[in-house]
Write a structure and sequence with these properties.
The two termini are about 30 Å apart. The protein has 4 helices and 4 strands; from the N terminus they run αααββαββ. A two-stranded antiparallel sheet has the order 1-2. A two-stranded antiparallel ribbon has the order 3-4. α3 packs antiparallel against α4. The longest helix has 20 residues. The mean pLDDT is about 75. It has a domain of about 45 residues. It is mostly helical and about 100 residues long.
Amino acid sequence: MSEATYSEKLARYHDRFDMKKFPESLRRQTSILDSLGCLLAGSRLEAAAGYGLAVATSGANSISSLVGSDRRVSFPDAVQAMSVASHCGEMDDIHGGAGTCIAP
């Protein structure tokens, strides 16, 4: 019998991986860092046009900072722009053929 391929070894490791073995506080911190990473990555993508729109419409009510930018915009614009950017930067485990996320 031949030795398992790297992909097979990785699949076995992933199959045995259980996030519930880690403390709740660590899982929460990991989730926050993941979200911030997605926001920063997405804020640099062309698809995150909300950043450009929010900056273009900044005015007297510009009290909120955009993460990854030195500009201030209105709170609703900041929420919209950063939500779009976060989603653009997200790297979900999508199955291209099915167009769905892989179940945990």
